[in-house]
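Question (not urgent): is this output format expected?
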Amino acid sequence: QVQLVESGGGLVQAGGSLRLSCAASGRTFSPYAMAWFRQVPGKERMFVAAVGRSADATYYANSVKGRFTISRDNAKNTVYLQMNSLKPEDTAVYYCAARSGSIYATQMASYDYWGQGTQVTCFS
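Got this back:
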């Protein structure tokens, strides 16, 4: 079992930045590919960004490409999501997810473990 705990969400004005963190515990972190998803009420959870076992293998949704950066620190068992140039449409609950294996995926069903989510609200 892997436990994931997100932090770093909050309220930010459009154009601002936030950094989300996801701390993993329970098992060795490094074998897992990690991702961030987000969800707004009444809509399905959507892929945001992912990183493979190797920290240089990353992938982004088109809506956040160039503004968000995913990274991981295996020594700290933590994955990050740096969010810059935030827009009101980025407002959502952000979830961290982990899947066994080295390769990232963009589908929810591919992930085995989920955090409880952290709220990000961007106002104009």
